[in-house]
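User: C-alpha cells in, sequence out, please.
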C-alpha cells in the first residue's frame, strides 16, 4: 500500500488524489501512518509553506534543527516542523509559560484569523518567553513559525482519522 502511495498512484484515494498531493507523495515516500498524517496536515494553507523542509528532513536531504532544545520533544516526530495544533499549544506552554487554557486561547485566536487578537497573543507570547529567559529574537522567530496556523492547522486526531481512511482506500486500491 505504501509503495503505490510513494509512487503517487493515489487516484481515488481519499485526501491524496489531487495532483499536488500525488506529487507530494512521490517526494515524501510515506512508510507509516504517521507520515500520511503529517502530509495530510501539511497540505493546508497555513502549514503548506513547511512542506519542503519536512520532506527534505524526512528524506535525509537536510538535518533536523530546533530553535530551542526544549522543542525537540514536541517536534521530533514531525522532523522539526510544526504540523499539528497540539504542537502549537505545547510550544506556547514550553516557550512562553502559557497554561493549557491560555494555549487554547492562542489556538482559537489563530483559527479566527483576527489580526488584532493575534497581535495581542503575540505580545503575551513574547512577554512570557522573556520571563522564561528566552531572547526576544528567538521567541519572535518561534512565534513566526507558529503564526501560519492562523490560516489553517489540523488537530492531530483529525489528521489520524483522515489518514486511516486514506490508508484504507489506498489498501483497497492496491
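Assistant: Sequence out:
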Amino acid at each position: 500500500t505504501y509503495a503505490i502511495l510513494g509512487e503517487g498512484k493515489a487516484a481515488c484515494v481519499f485526501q491524496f488524489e489531487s495532483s499536488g498531493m500525488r506529487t507530494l507523495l512521490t517526494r515524501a515516500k510515506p512508510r507509516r501512518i504517521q507520515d500520511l498524517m503529517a502530509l495530510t496536515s501539511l497540505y493546508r494553507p497555513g502549514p503548506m509553506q513547511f512542506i519542503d523542509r519536512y520532506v527534505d528532513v524526512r528524506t535525509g536531504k537536510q538535518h533536523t534543527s530546533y530553535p530551542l532544545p526544549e522543542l525537540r520533544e514536541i517536534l521530533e516526530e514531525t522532523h522539526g516542523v510544526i504540523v499539528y495544533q497540539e504542537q502549537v499549544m505545547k510550544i506556547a506552554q514550553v516557550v512562553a509559560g502559557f497554561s493549557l487554557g491560555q494555549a487554547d486561547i492562542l489556538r482559537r485566536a489563530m483559527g479566527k484569523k483576527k489580526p488584532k487578537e493575534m497581535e495581542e497573543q503575540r505580545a503575551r507570547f513574547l512577554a512570557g518567553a522573556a520571563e522564561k529567559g528566552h531572547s526576544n529574537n528567538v521567541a519572535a522567530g518561534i512565534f513566526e513559525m507558529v503564526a501560519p496556523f492562523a490560516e489553517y492547522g489540523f488537530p492531530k486526531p483529525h489528521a489520524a482519522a483522515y489518514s486511516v481512511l486514506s490508508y484504507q482506500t489506498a489498501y483497497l486500491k492496491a
